[in-house]
Design brief:
The protein has 186 residues and is mainly beta. Helix content is 5%, strand content 38%. Strands 1-3-4-6-5 form a 5-stranded mixed β-barrel. The protein is extended, with a radius of gyration of 28 Å.
């Protein structure tokens, strides 16, 4: 068994770069959208001398399809996000023939955190912040309408009331005499 899971809370380092993959000749209107951006996470601690220190890590984030739509509309430099996804390392050869590597977080889930910037009006029917999770299999769905929350707990089937149990018969015999050892204070 193995697990590849990343959870981050941080601030976007620059405006996201959004690209469309080439369309499929059989389905020309179905371009896959991908967005990428850097995310900074910071850790504060005190060193041996008691001075406050800060360590910042930068993560390359990649989001696809519906989540890329949300990122394109609502994520900008400085936006605070919660990201959940998996690590992926890619390799390619650059123009000079050298092998290059990059490690990125492919986000499955994202949540906008923090306050909305002042003066930013939310269009009617737009995304209102909160939990977004891209389905595992791509499906033709509207992109996260405001009238419905992105997370809806599953409805459980109603259960029948348990059958009543017959009452135990009442004890009819004499009560046992109390022994002095049963008179302990604890």
């Amino acid at each position: 068994m193995s697990l590849n899971k990343v959870m981050l809370i941080g601030n976007v380092g620059k405006d996201p770069e959004v690209r469309y993959l080439e369309s499929n000749p059989q389905n020309p209107g179905n371009n896959a959208k991908v967005a990428s951006f850097p995310l900074a996470t910071s850790e504060r601690y005190r060193d041996r001398n008691g001075e406050q220190r800060e360590n910042t890590e930068w993560h390359n984030i990649v989001v696809w399809r519906g989540n890329a739509d949300v990122v394109e509309k609502y994520v900008h430099k400085g936006t605070q996000l919660y990201i959940e996804g998996k690590l992926r390392t890619r390799q390619w050869t650059d123009q000079t023939g050298n092998k290059r590597y990059t490690t990125e977080v492919v986000a499955d889930t994202l949540q906008l955190l923090g306050k909305r910037p002042e003066g930013e009006n939310q269009p009617q029917g737009g995304y209102q912040g909160g939990y977004v999770q891209q389905p595992a299999a791509p499906a033709a769905q509207p992109a996260y309408p405001a009238a419905q929350p992105a997370y809806q707990p599953a409805q459980s089937a109603p259960q029948a009331a348990p059958a009543p149990q017959p009452a135990a018969p009442a004890y009819q015999g004499p009560l046992p005499a109390a022994e002095p050892s049963d008179d302990l204070p604890f």
